[in-house]
Amino acid sequence: MKIFTTPRRIIVTCNKRLSPYLEREVVDLGFVPVRTFPTGVELEGTVKDCIRLNLNLRCASQVHYALKEFKVNHPDVLYRVLNGMPWETILAKDGYFSVTSNVDHPTVNNNMFVNVKVKDAIVDRMRSETGQRPDSGNELTGAVIHLYWKDDRAEVFIDTSGETLAKHGYRKIPGKAPMLEALAAATVMATKWDRVSPFINPMCGSGTVAIEAALLATKRVPGLYRSDYSFMHVLGYTDDLYQKELETIRNQVIEVPGLTIVASDISLDAATISKVNAENAGVDSLIQFQQCDFEETALPEKPGLVYFNPEYGERLGEISELEGTYSRVGDFMKKKCQGYLGYIFTGNLDLAKKIGLKASRRIEFFTAKIDCRLLEYELYGGTRRQNLPKTEASSQAEE
Predict the structure, then answer these.
(1) How far is CA 90 from the centre of its chain?
(2) Which of 112, 130, 223, 366 has the fewest CB within 10 Å, making it most exposed?
(3) What CA–CA distance (Å, rounded) separates 279 from 45?
């Protein structure tokens, strides 16, 4: 099975509500999506194409390359179908693989049972064809096989990613309640930021939003920060395929003269963590770190974009205290950010009412299981400002 040169269905998954931004990334890479759905994008390509997708995508979680689709109504049928596939042409007999699955079928009440069934089918086939069997386990450090089974239809894939792509690899110190890197990138992509004007991120926490803004502006992609993927552990892989794409993404990095990104936080730990993470991403020289209350954040003379990600609060006492914080954020934007575009990412729309400004857009997102909004505010000065260009992806994601 020549998976590196045979085009098949590719499913690129993402967290819920990130698919409009993932689709834009896929198109920008020159691919033509077959369909876009709430948690992913479907296209056609080879495992060689999957290498490019894995290294470049900011908003993705996994890149799945389809091997076979079939009808199945019982785990025993699943075993027979998979045992009949030529795994010896895909997996090394002395290698290592793991199995993941997404199953919704009345005969299955435990995904681990299905994972073992898939593993048994593969190793039994390998042993009968080669006299050896690869090791297997739960770690996603080798080849990864993924099963999707819903009702009477199943499909088996090579998960060419392995560990999730949603974590971009530079954040060694997460800090308190950090935003997932893929989500942070998507929210910045959803704004009208032109990637040249100043980007101000008070309450920066571990610095993820400011760092993702710097990465976007300079065309640095997640593949620069990771060196192990599942596609490296299947038969037919040669390192020159990876090295060629790695050279491409290194060469596409650009300088943005005069780029101003400011990240501030009242916590010394947060400011320190942010700087360490930015150093790991190679963008620490592009970000001005300030330890201060957000109201004291030093703003550049030239207006740009200000982005807040305040806490949402879970307990009544926290929410009561945060009402004052949200009110102060609103005052800061009204008094000190005239001429800016303002954005607040929050999972508590009741608290957002305390900002005291009317949002011009409310863009839907999820973080974990919390229904969130990225709220946009046009902070006019003496005259109505000209908006930064509106991105196609952001318009697709509006309510």
Answers:
(1) 28
(2) 112
(3) 35
How far apart are alpha carbons 8 and 381 in whole angstroms? 53
- Which among 212, 164, 226 has a CA at the least distance from the CA of 14? 164
Phi, psi dihedrals of residue 196, rounded to the nearest 5°: -130, -40
Helix 239-251 vs helix 47-56: crossing angle, to nearest 10:
40
In this structure, are residues 303 and 339 in contact, taking their beta carbons and an 8 Å threshold?
A: yes
> What SS3 state is found at 339?
coil
Closest CA to 152 of 74, 66, 77, 73: 73
Per-residue pLDDT of 84-125, as tens digits, reads: 999 999 999 999 999 999 999 998 888 899 999 999 999 999
Q: What are 68's two structure tokens?
A: 């076979």
- The pLDDT tens digits of the residues spanning 333-352 come to 999 999 999 999 999 999 99
Best CA proximity match to 45, nearest among 157, 186, 162: 157
What backbone phi and psi angles, to 5 degrees, belong to 213? -65, -45
CB 250 within 8 A of CB 224: yes
Nearest to 114 by CA among 154, 161, 63: 154
The secondary structure of residue 369, as a DSSP letter, is T
Q: Which residues neighbour 209 within 8 Å (Cβ) at sequence distance 6 or greater?
A: 179, 184, 187, 188, 201, 307, 309
pLDDT given at position 316: 54
Q: What are phi and psi of 339, to 5 degrees?
A: 90, -10
Amino acid at 290: Q
Higher pLDDT: 188 or 319? It is 188
Report the C-alpha gap between 374 and 371 in whole angstroms. Answer: 11
Exposure pattern of 338-360 as b/e (b: 16+ CB <10 Å)?
A: eebbbbbbbbbeebbebbebebe
Q: Are the C-beta atoms of residues 342 and 385 closer than 8 Å to each other? A: no
Q: Looking at the predicted structure, is the pLDDT value of residue 385 above 60?
A: no
Q: What does the buried/exposed string (b/e) look like for 236-245 if buried means 16 or more CB atoms within 10 Å of the residue's CB?
A: ebeeebbeeb
Instruction: Say if strands 143-150 and 96-104 run parallel, antiparallel, or are unpaired.
Output: parallel
Residue 202 has pLDDT above 80, yes or no: yes
